[in-house]
Amino acid sequence: MTHSRRGLVLFAVLGLAVGCSSDAPKLNEKPVHKVRGQVLVNDKPAAGAFVLFIPVNEAAGSTDPRPRATADDNGHFVISTYGDGDGAPAGEYRVTVTWPDGNDVEDRLNGRYSPANSKLKATVKDGPNELPVYKLK
Predict the structure, then answer these.
(1) Could you read off the pLDDT of 47-63 as tens digits, one per residue?
(2) Cβ 83 vs Cβ 68: under 8 Å
(3) DSSP string spanning 70-99?
(4) How far is CA 77 from the centre of its chain?
């Protein structure tokens, strides 16, 4: 193989490798948008609270993963759907929050923000999203 041909082959292989490492959605994955927020309980960070987004128009039997996050020590969270911190598909969501005690057994919020009871909402739009602070009691 000539030197110029080897260079062309190497260029093509590198081009394929770069193209394959793109952030584009994979087959059956919806495009996602960065989503950040914070959850406070009685004006204090809810460290370790689990935040789950349930699509308002979720089809029965849907196998799409639900966007979710765990709050850090300051109550801040970054939503993940397909990968760590990747975001959520655009749309309207009901937001649920559970806050396990130190033993991960009891919900310190007593189910007030469970899927059956939560009135919390979120709208994810194209582009980065900074949600209003969820102030819980």
Answers:
(1) 999 999 999 999 899 98
(2) no
(3) E--TTSEEE-BSSSTT--B-SEEEEEEEE-
(4) 9
